Every structure is written in C-alpha cells, then in structure tokens.
Amino acid sequence: MDLTERCVAHVELFKGRLLHAFRDDVELPDGTVGHREYIMHPGAVMIIPLVDRADGTQAVILERQFRYPVGETLIELPAGKRDPGEDSLATAQRELREETGFCATEWAFAGKLQPAVGYSNETIDVWFARMLRAGKRKLDAGEFLEIFEASPDELLTWCQSGRVIDSKTLVGALWLQNVLSGAWKVTWNRVPAGPHGWVTA
Amino acid sequence: MDLTERCVAHVELFKGRLLHAFRDDVELPDGTVGHREYIMHPGAVMIIPLVDRADGTQAVILERQFRYPVGETLIELPAGKRDPGEDSLATAQRELREETGFCATEWAFAGKLQPAVGYSNETIDVWFARMLRAGKRKLDAGEFLEIFEASPDELLTWCQSGRVIDSKTLVGALWLQNVLSGAWKVTWNRVPAGPHGWVTA
Asked: Across the strands, what pairs with B45?
C-alpha cells in the first residue's frame, strides 16, 4: 500500500528565533484531506569522540548541559546545528571544536537519525571521531556546558539506569556498542585540519 | 557548576491542533538573560512487542508509516501520545491494541527517552510487551500504517544500514539487543486485560 501523503497547501504558522512551524493540508492515502503541523529544522550532527587512555582503553567525551525544555541537566554526546550551506563533516568538526576544544584527525560516518518524526523534519548525522588533540573551546553566547569523559561501559550503564535519557545520545550508545564489539563496521578517514584547526570546505 | 536556567517570563507563541509553542526568558548561569523556544508535549509511549514464532525464536512487531515532516515511509516501533491523565502502561496497552490489534498479558518497563531536548519537553516511556494475542486494530482518523514482523537481527541490520532512522526505534533496538543478550534486565509483570481488552486504570 502506498502510504504517501501529498501536500495540497503549505502555511507558515510561526517563525521565532529558533522555531519555524508550518501547517500543511495533505491528501491522505484514502483521498481525504488531513492536517500536519511540524517544525522545519536545518539539520544537525552528533559526534562520538573517542580518546585513547594511558591504560590502552578508550573513553568517550560527553557533555553535561542544562536543557530548559525538559528542565534538567542532561548527559549528552556533543552535537549541534548545521549552518546554512555547511557540509555535515565541517559541522561535526566545528561543533566538536567549539563545544569540547578537541580537534580530531580521523573521522568515520556512522548513520543518521531523525529525533521527532511526528513533528519535526530534523535529521542528525552521526560521526565517530578519534585521534583527538585538545585545544580551547569556544561556546556560543548563552551556551553553558561541561565536558567529561566516561568509559563505553559507564555510558551503557547510564543508558540502562535512566541517567542518560537524551535520544541522540542513546542512539550514539547503540553505535558505540556495536562498533566496539566489531558487529558494525565504519570506515575511518584521515581528515587534515585546515588553518583554523578544522576543514571548512 | 550549577548549569540551571531559571524562568523569568513565559509567553505562549502558538497553539495549533498539534503544536503548542512557548518562549521563555531565562536567567542563565552567568546571570544574563537568554531566550528559550520550545514545544510542550503531553508525553508518549513506545512498545517493543515480542511474538513467539513456531520455530522457538522471537520476532518484534514493527510498523511502516508515512511521516509527513520527513517525507518518507519509516519503519518504527508502535508508539503514541498519552491522553490527559492516562497512566503510562494504559497508554502502551491502548496504543498497541489500536495500532497493531495485539493485546499483551506480560509487560516490562524499560526506560525513558527524550527525543528532542533542545526544543521539546516530550518524554517517551519504553515498554516491552509479550504473550501477545491478535485482535482487531482501531486506527485514529487520518492514521494509516502497516504492521509486519522482523527478527531482532533484521531490525539491528536495518539500524546499521540506515533503513531504520527514527530515533525512538533506534533506542528500542538498543534495549532489545541488551535485554535479549541478558546484559540488561527488565522485570516482567502479568497484567490482566480489562473488559475492553486492556487495563484502563
């Protein structure tokens, strides 16, 4: 059965500083007309940054950030919105640098996730990063977050216990678990840093 | 460091049929004032329904549903919004029944996820269901979806390949993988069905 819904009217509901909302009239599979309200989003990236510890094990870089909509300080993987026209890897390099201070010289694309398919068109690209070099971070105005590292086992324990509740970070844990076990493969690429410490094109 | 942001003003931006948006002025950790725009959501549940196959293996019930905001037919675990005052398990029983036709007599709470912490207060409770009895489904007006079953290995392969992209379903795969491997434990409870086939209180 073709479940596709076709746009018959597209109306802007609201344009705020962050949220941009629309209501479309759509033709449903049975020919009747329905209504769909949703947020248009520029897209985002998430990074799973892996650091090599002195004891030969790997750790993942995490953030602690207050999320006003849910009223809590959450544990999350680094992530951020794409700038207009910005390529996915360039966003990942920029956000990792801005939020954590780290530059990575090896990157692997994992996959995509859509956080809220019922009411947002947001897609988040998921990247692994390794061979990290620490630097100075540069947070956006109004952005406050703390960086820390945890072992993959700690992260997975927190996913089970409810200490990690952010969906993208839970999806990151799925990727991390399966890549570290060898069940899922990713392809690592060496990405030279540009003059500002990351590739911009 | 206390990262908490405190509300100093709360303004309704927009109330549609689905979306209810607000902008708050907030006091940031450094004492300056920032702005946060977000969607208020009633909360939702997701169900990981397990069926016993004749060959002794287990399969999971999935849905195929067109998601207008992302313009694609997606593979998802059953899920739905909570009605006002409705208890989480009652929502899970109702949504499983409405969307798939199945009633389950054994339920286990897994955990919670928040799909879009940057701009929505939505929380999704994750439930496992087993001991399923097939019945007649009852979709909402304007809701069109197909039901099918897959093995846990198939679901995980699709999570890696990008065929599954919905974040809640990816998080469901994380739960399924770890519960089936025995790494994560859940507690199963026998839940008698009420007169309408599910418990309403």
From this structure: B80, B125
Chain A residues with beta carbon closer than 8 angstroms to that of B18: 36-37, 119
CB-neighbour burial class of residue A81 (10 A; exposed 0-12, middle 13-18, buried 19+):
middle
Distance from CA of B159 to the nearest CA of A (A): 9
Q: What is the average per-residue pLDDT within B145-152?
A: 97
- CA gap A154, B111 in Å, rounded: 17
B63 CA to chain A: closest CA distance, Å?
Answer: 12
Q: How far apart are CA A155 and CA A177, in angstroms?
A: 10
- What is the structure's pLDDT at B199? 47
The DSSP bridge pattern shows strands B103-113 and B188-190 to be: antiparallel
- Tokens 């061979």 -> residue: A131
Nearest neighbour of B17 by CB, restricted to A37, A122, A166: A37
Phi-psi sector, B101: left (phi>0), alpha (psi -120 to 50), beta: left
pLDDT score, position A124: 98
